[in-house]
Amino acid sequence: SFDTTKDVPSLTGKVIMITGASTGIGFETVKNLLRGSPAHIYFAGRNRSKHEAAIASLRELFPSTSTKLSFLECDLESLSSVQAAAKSFIMQSSAQPESESNRLDILICNAGVHGAPDGQTADGYEVRWGVNYMSHALLIKYLMPIMLQTAQRSGVEAEVRCVLVSSAGFRFTVSDGIDFKSQYLKYGQSKLATILLTRKLNEQHPSVKTVAVHPGIVGTGMNLGLGKAEVMFMKVSGWMNGYPWLTPEQGAVNQTWAAVGKKENVIGGEYFEKPGEVGKPTKWSKSEQLQKELWEWTEEEL
Questions:
Q1: Which position among 186, 191, 200, 209 bears the catalytic label?
Q2: Residue 243 appears among annotated catalytic residues
Q3: Per the similarity annotation, which family is this (predicted)?
């Protein structure tokens, strides 16, 4: 078990970035992380007013915190916006005091869409695939060098980590695992791709521990657009499969643990359904061939 009120260690001096933290699980995750007093948390998101309201709320909840809280404009429906956000962070990071300069200790790819209306991103990807997978893959690609640099620094007590939010929904996909041309079942495909990307990144960059997590079935803004019948189906099917409906506070536990839990318990390259509990894989989530195909396709696209 992991108690977010007691088990968050000191994060003194650490720099964190999280996507989609204005509300819901992301907001609750930041609340948890603030208990460790990191040096700086960057909120990467599209809506400035919502994120600034969230930051103001957090400052009221933690009036004595010394942690800097900054908004970083990043529209995950646009790869050019993601690229600009990464470059902006790198520029801002280089201008920070020496202890924070050119540093990123924890990246949490939290933002996602599920019940959004059907549509495409600015780059022509199905919106769930584009937001949940493609944009985070690009963000990681641009930020990995600074994370590797952070990992090489002496005196970094806890390892550098990259946490990707997947879902038990990765099991609901097409018969081939991932169909790069189809628009069908893209939510499940995006979450399967996230797990495969996690494994590949951990193999390629072992000094940055990359893990994937299932937050649980949570009633958040990510599910806006789902009808009452669909929400009821999620609740019932989740309950039948051992996934009860959670609050955002409960949903934030797993990714908080993945970000700051004890290094011997957080295993790189794995997908965790609960703190310390590795999720049961499927044929496709453990497929070396599909992982290779996805990586090559992603590199070509980005």
A1: 191
A2: no
A3: Belongs to the short-chain dehydrogenases/reductases (SDR) family.
CATH superfamily of 15-301: NAD(P)-binding Rossmann-like Domain (3.40.50.720)
Pairing type for strands 208-213 and 160-165 reads parallel
Q: What is the pTM of this model?
A: 0.89
Of 42, 125, 133, 187, which is the active-site residue? 187
Give pLDDT tens digits along the chain (302 positions): 899 999 999 999 999 999 999 999 999 999 999 999 999 999 999 999 999 999 999 999 999 999 999 999 999 999 999 999 999 999 999 999 888 899 999 999 999 987 667 789 999 999 999 999 999 999 999 999 999 999 998 555 558 999 999 876 755 665 566 766 665 568 888 999 999 999 999 999 999 999 999 988 765 444 444 444 444 444 444 444 555 668 989 999 999 999 999 999 999 999 999 999 999 888 888 999 999 999 999 999 99
Is 191 among the catalytic positions?
Answer: yes
**Whole-number Å distance between alpha carbons of 81 and 15:** 21
Q: Which residues of 99-125 are buried (b: 16+ CB within 10 A; e: fewer)?
A: ebebbbbbbbbbbbbbbbeeeebeeeb
